[in-house]
Amino acid sequence: MQYKTLLPNILTGLRLALIPLLVLLLSYEQTTWPAFWAWFVFAFAAFTDWLDGYLARKLNCESVLGKLMDPLADKLLVTGALLMLIPLDRIAAWVCLLIIAREMLITGVRGLAASKNKVVAADNLGKIKANFQYFGIGFLVFPLGLLPIPYQYQFAMVLIWISIVLSYWSAAQYIYNLRDIFFEKP
Length: 186
Prior knowledge:
Layout: H1 6-27, H2 32-58, H3 64-85, H4 93-115, H5 124-141, H6 152-177
């Protein structure tokens, strides 16, 4: 492995390491400071997603490990945040299930593709979906009423619903583009 591939992979590892901290912060009573720090950790972790992808492309050092671990880290970050928002009454469990089910489906398809020596990176629609998810979840995590943002919760849920539509659209495209793997002989 070349040294320059380390930085994007370290950022992915950092994102994975921040998930338990986020879960811990969201498990406290969501007064202003724990909620603010939870938002900060989530926002920083989401930023590392953008930064590791940017550096991997800029330094021309995309790796198989990065293509596999980056989406996994993203899914765990989103899932961890969503699950912790349920008992806070910030999001309904069934909405989380829609998001998590899609992520599990795509993870399974990625695994099947990898077993057939096909590694597929996220497409642009998936990246747009991720941004809507990150911003929506970020608004849900951010302390309600701290800033003069009218309808913060409703705005966050609009972003979440846009991300759900985009996520199922991108899943359909992803499965269609990999349709050959479902019919290959083992």
